[in-house]
Design goal:
By secondary structure, the chain is α+β, with helices and mostly antiparallel strands. The protein is built from 9 helices and 6 strands. A hairpin with a 5-residue loop joins strand 1 and strand 2. Helix 2 crosses helix 3. It is flat and about 70 Å long.
Length: about 230
Amino acid sequence: MPAPQEPTATWQRLSQVFLTGVVAILPLALTIAVLGWIVGLVYSFAGPGSICGRFFRSIGMSVVACEATAYIIGVVVAVLTVFGLGALIEHGAIKRFRSAFDNVLHRVPVLGTVYDASKQMTSIFEPNPESLKSMTPVMCYFGPNRDAGMPALMPTPELVRLGGKEYHIVIIPTAPVPFGGALLMLEKSWVQPAPCGLDELIGIYMSMGVTAPRSLNDSDGQEATPNNSQAALT
């Protein structure tokens, strides 16, 4: 007859099984959380009660009287309009007009700055984004012996010079939604190339660090340096 297990051993076994289940379901939970955040953001911006939603209803009300159907018609019209605009831009039909429009907005003191920043941010979603070519995954180290560090994104290799020192601008993403975060200015020597790509860096934050050992560890125990990352920091 087997000896009964002690309460402590039983509790540890139950805790281990529970934690195993948590780790197994965590990727799906994070995916659902990010998807819910995106859906909520889109709904608040273009839902029936938003300014865009009321505009969509006003488009559809010229066709039908039902508000719900009018909203759907307005959304379809807006999607087709955006799709048509994208097709025209890809074929170069309104390239000159777009360039002239950008130049006009850039000359407006406040509006030009906001428009330029928004254009640079949204350019990362283009099929071949130019802005991503200048973005570099980096590691930011703190302390005299590099006692602490964090993966970050360097949006530009250009340095900021203040008080006789050179600084890098880096973005520290927010886990598990790496679309926001903190913008820091760190001394040049504190910023080193990261041994991972942009997709892997985003995956580290979306997984709340679970994928960090696989993405950041080097098989030889030395810090790996991508060829383009080292060049971007010099």
